[in-house]
Design goal:
The structure is a single chain. This protein has a four-stranded antiparallel beta sheet, with helices on one face. The mean pLDDT is about 85. It has about 280 residues and is an alpha+beta fold.
Length: about 280
Amino acid sequence: MIIKKIFNNNAIVAKDSEKHEFVVMGCGIAFKKNVGEKVDESLIEKTFILKQKDASEKFKLLLEDIPTEDVSMSYDIIEYAKNLLGVELNDYIYVTLTDHISNALKMFDEGYNTRNPLIWEIKKFYSKEFQVGVKAIEFIEDETGKKLPEDEAANIALHLINSQINNSSSGVEDIAKQTKMVQDILNIVKYTYNIALDENSLNYERFVTHLRFFFQRLNKNEQVIKDEDDFLFKQVKEKYKKAYDCMLKIEKYLEIELSDEEKLYLTIHIQRVTQR
């Protein structure tokens, strides 16, 4: 492995024998070294293998502007997230989350705290991602002595959510909007039935999960595979009239025309989540 570019004593771009490039970090890995020299692989602590070229190039640019310590912390948080969530994260997470955490620390030093108005919803609907966020701010405090507010756990969670369902470097705003819409739909159900929903029930969890993937389908302009036999939909429409009427309110709120299949699934979920 050969040094191709040096950012500082602890971070370089290295190239292997097959001309693959990696961002490599390690204490003193570039100390008294020059471009073209061999990498002391015993000093490698972290290796960033970003398959998406655009993400890789943006990550290299980021390394020129922010402290290596922030990059290292973000790496550890992302690895923890991958293990806890058990999902594949888009390469852009190394760019977006690293940049966010570094900026959050700067803002903290300047006395600014960024509020997240959706923190309550994120806690409920994306509990695992929020759990990662909580661990992240604990880890950041251990490493820097800076105790970031709980809102930052929600901000970090949004980046992780976005990284799971998007294939670009943007979209955190879309996830925030989606989260608010899920809450609005739950409120429509609550007010229609004049009940409090059991947020610990399996039916509630299934309904929220359905809504999350429903919005993903809308974003991707996908539809549920159509079943030519609409007998079940007619049965459900007739049997669960109140749930069906509630679904129509949701359709009106969304300002889109839902397919019969989407109407069917939403009606069934509404019926289940409101059962006593």
